[in-house]
Specification:
By secondary structure, the chain is mainly β. The protein is built from 2 helices and 20 strands. The chain has helices at 74-81, 267-281, and strands spanning 34-39, 52-56, 62-65, 67-68, 71-72, 86-91, 100-101, 110-112, 122-126, 131-136, 143-151, 159-165, 175-178, 186-189, 194-198, 207-213, 218-222, 225-229, 238-242, 252-262. It has a 10-stranded antiparallel sheet, with helices on one face. Strands 1, 8, 9, 11, 16, 17, 18 and 20 form an 8-stranded antiparallel sheet that branches.
C-alpha cells in the first residue's frame, strides 16, 4: 500500500473510494462553457485521457494514471507507487490543452488517497508546491473559477488553491484565496480587493468554492453561501495556477478539483456544481 502524507485526525494511507460515489455523473456533462478543468475524477464522460502523471519516490520513475469508470484509478496508482510516495508531475487538463505541470521535484505536490470526506484523493501542498498551467490565450471575460479545497496550515499568510495569473492591471492574480488570519476564511480576490465568501474557511475541512470574476457583479459562493462585490475583469491572456498564485501565496493544504469556465456562471449552475461537489466529495 502507498505510504501517504500524515495529517492530524485522518488516515493517510491509501483506501478505496466508497462505492456510493462510483458511477456518479461528471459535472461537465451538465455544465457548458468550461475552458480548462483539472480533477481526480472524470469531469465529463467523453474524456478519454489520463488524470495525472505521477513520479514515485522509490526510483523517480513516472507513469500516467487514469480512471476506473469515472473515479480515479486508485488501484493503478498504489500498484505503481508501492511502499513509497507519489508526486504529481502533470495534472492533465480534461477540457483543453493547458496541462498543469511542475518540473522541479521538490515543488511537486503529493497525491494523497482516501483524504476527502467521501474517501477520494487530492493533491497536497506543504506550502512550497505549485502547478502552473500553460497560457490560455482565448480568455473569456467574465469568467468563473470553481474548486474543492482545504487549508491545513499557514493561517498567518494568504493561501491560494486556484487562481489565474495576469489579471487586472496586468499583474494581479484573481482567484480563490484563503485570507491571512486564523479565521480569515475563503474569498474571491485579486491583489487589490477581497470579496469574503466564508469567514470560517480555515477549519481543516474541504469546501466547495465558486467565484465569478465579473467587474461590479463579481461573486463568491462557498458551500452554498454567497457574497458579492467588485473585481476588475481582465481581457488579456491568462495562465491557470493550482496550489499557488505563482508568486508567494502558496497553499498549505489540498486541492482535488479546479475548473475554469468562460462567462459568469448563473445561480442555477452554481447550485448544480455545488451539489456535485457535495455528493462526490462530501463538502458541506
Amino acid at each position: 500500500m502507498a505510504r501517504m502524507v500524515k495529517r492530524p485526525r485522518r488516515r493517510w494511507w491509501a483506501v478505496a473510494a466508497r462505492p456510493v460515489i462510483s458511477g456518479s455523473t461528471p459535472p461537465l456533462d451538465a455544465l457548458t462553457g468550461a475552458i480548462a478543468g483539472y480533477s481526480l475524477r472524470k469531469l465529463r464522460s467523453a474524456y478519454a485521457g489520463k488524470a495525472v502523471n505521477v513520479r514515485r519516490s522509490s526510483d523517480n520513475a513516472t507513469q500516467d494514471i487514469g480512471f476506473a469508470g469515472n473515479d480515479f484509478d486508485t488501484t493503478a496508482f498504489t500498484s505503481f507507487v508501492g511502499a513509497g510516495t507519489g508526486f504529481i508531475v502533470t495534472w492533465y487538463d480534461q477540457v483543453g490543452s493547458a496541462n498543469a505541470t511542475q518540473a522541479t521535484q521538490a515543488n511537486q505536490p503529493t497525491l494523497v488517497t482516501g483524504i476527502t470526506p467521501r474517501g477520494t484523493p487530492a493533491a497536497y501542498s506543504a506550502g512550497g508546491n505549485s502547478l502552473l498551467a500553460g497560457t490560455i490565450s482565448a480568455t473569456v471575460v467574465p469568467f468563473t473559477l470553481a474548486t474543492v479545497c482545504e487549508r491545513t496550515g499557514n493561517q498567518a499568510a494568504y493561501n491560494v488553491p486556484f487562481c489565474v495569473q495576469g489579471g487586472p492591471s496586468g499583474n494581479n492574480n484573481p482567484g480563490i484565496f484563503y485570507n491571512n488570519s486564523a479565521n480569515g476564511g475563503i474569498s474571491l480576490a485579486d491583489l487589490n480587493t477581497d470579496i469574503l465568501g466564508f469567514p470560517a474557511g480555515s477549519d481543516n475541512a474541504f469546501h466547495s468554492a465558486i467565484g465569478v470574476v465579473n467587474a461590479g457583479a463579481s461573486s463568491i459562493t462557498v458551500d452554498g453561501a454567497g457574497a458579492t462585490g467588485s473585481l476588475v475583469s481582465n481581457a488579456g491572456a491568462l495562465a491557470v495556477n493550482l496550489l499557488s498564485d505563482n508568486l508567494t501565496s502558496t497553499l498549505t493544504g489540498y486541492v482535488t478539483e479546479a475548473i475554469y469556465f468562460g462567462g459568469a456562471m448563473s445561480a442555477g449552475n452554481i447550485a448544480t456544481l455545488r451539489s456535485s461537489h457535495q455528493s462526490y466529495y462530501g463538502t458541506p
